[in-house]
Amino acid sequence: MEHYISQLISDIHQATWRVRPPHEIWEDVDLENEADLEDLSYVEEYVYGTPEKISSITGIATECLPPPEKLNEDQAGRLALELEKLLNFFHFNLDFPEVYPLHFRYPFIRNIWDDEHVPISFGESHIEFCDYDQETCPFQGYCNSCEEYANELKHDLNLSNEKWDDDQDLPF
The pTM is what? Predict the structure, then answer.
């Protein structure tokens, strides 16, 4: 398996040679202007974009990714790291907790490989794995995003439920 992993990592590195030309909406854009970049990335993704499987975007077929149960922790961690770098190259950002171990990430990454996303030329497209429900959080013990989200919701609900007299200062 070790020889196969080394060959796969080499294939992953070569996949960065698959450079797509930018979408035509980028022809007259000042790439130094962050506001333009953000706006046009959104337009490219949600207006003009056509979803494709990640395997098609990257050129790495899903069948090439070994089942997680066939890998040891080191192999799974190395593949996860290389696949995340590859996805970053194609402007996809995987939303894992910072402290989430690499070898635990690999099954998540492999599971999304046939999911469809819009390839973009600039900016980043986030791929989330959590629905922010504390009871079903896939990263139990590694993050507190679900708890923070629940607290923000409670705070927002409390603000919207408060009644304001004409004499009171508004909170904004």
Answer: 0.75
